[in-house]
Amino acid sequence: MLIQLKAYLEARGRASLTEMALRLGSDEEAVRGMLAHWIAKGRVARLSCPPAACAKSCCGCPSAAAEIYEWRGTGAAG
């Protein structure tokens, strides 16, 4: 599943935790664990949701939907 997550993020560039969990058919906690692997390798970064991104200043989004990750594609090999 790590490779599927990698391929999905590489293709999309950015995705929410909810999107990735749905795509992989997994729960959000499991996806967070997989993301931790890629974050530790410097390949993925969690992005902050800027208040200007929506009209609700980050108070209206479910927390998982506001959890956005970006593929960086650099870092340690592997």
UniProtKB/TrEMBL annotation:
Transmembrane stretches, start-end: none
Pfam families: FeoC (PF09012)
Residue ranges of domain Transcriptional regulator HTH-type FeoC in the record: 1-70
Coiled-coil stretches: none
Superkingdom as given in the UniProt entry: Bacteria
InterPro entries for the chain: Tscrpt_reg_HTH_FeoC, WH-like_DNA-bd_sf, WH_DNA-bd_sf
Protein name (database record): Transcriptional regulator HTH-type FeoC domain-containing protein
